[in-house]
Amino acid sequence: MSKAAHQQVLALWQQYKAAISRTLLGYEADYSLRQDLMQELYLGLYHSAERLAAAENQRAYLFRVMHNVAVDHIARASRQRWQPLEEQELPEELTAACPSEQKSAEQQSSLLLQAVQQLSPAHRQVVLLAMEDTDPQQIADILGLSHGAVRVRLSRAKAELQELLDYASSH
């Protein structure tokens, strides 16, 4: 790998580090497993640095690699029991920096994250990307789906997410 490609991976990593952390938090509640996912993602980017450098939309490429790493993780973990995120495990710097957060209260962020983690994997993928201000066409490019399929998934995911949040707030 060229030094320029390596520098480009580092620069992209630094630019999107908070978004990466928030997105992976949606896939994995356990801190140590999430750190493993971050390492897998970085290695994936490192090994594909030349393709990353040639990518027309590097952000989309990053999220595509992250999606693939997360899907592999979910497949490996599907045989294991899911453990819900405990409130004290939610890093404050992640909730404070979240661009889609409607309210600044940590409790609301925690409820939202718990609801996102209860979504089906397909719905969780589109919601997490949308929460990072990714438009439906970019989501379609990242996930390899049609624009229409993404819009349907987003609509269904939002409805499911609203039901989960309504249920959580009533109990």
Task: Please characterize this protein's 3D structure.
The protein is mainly α and 171 residues long. The protein has helices spanning 3-15, 17-27, 31-47, 49-54, 58-77, 92-97, 106-118, 121-131, 136-143, 147-170. Helix 3 crosses helix 5 (58-77). It starts with a helix and ends with a helix. 25% of the residues are buried.
In short:
The chain has 171 residues and is mainly alpha-helical. It is built from 10 helices and no strands. Residues 100-104 have low confidence and may be disordered.
For this entry, give a set of tags:
mainly alpha, globular, single chain, 171 residues
N-C termini distance: 53 Å
Number of strands: 0
The helix-and-strand class reads mainly alpha
Give the overall form. Answer: globular
Instruction: Please provide the ordered H/E string of secondary-structure elements.
Output: HHHHHHHHHH
Radius of gyration from the alpha-carbon trace, in angstroms: 16 Å
Hey, roughly how much beta strand do the residues contain? under 5%
- Average pLDDT works out at 82
What about the largest sheet? Answer: none
Unreliable stretches (pLDDT < 50, length at least 5) are 100-104
Helicity, as a percent range:
over 70%
How many alpha or pi helices?
Answer: 10
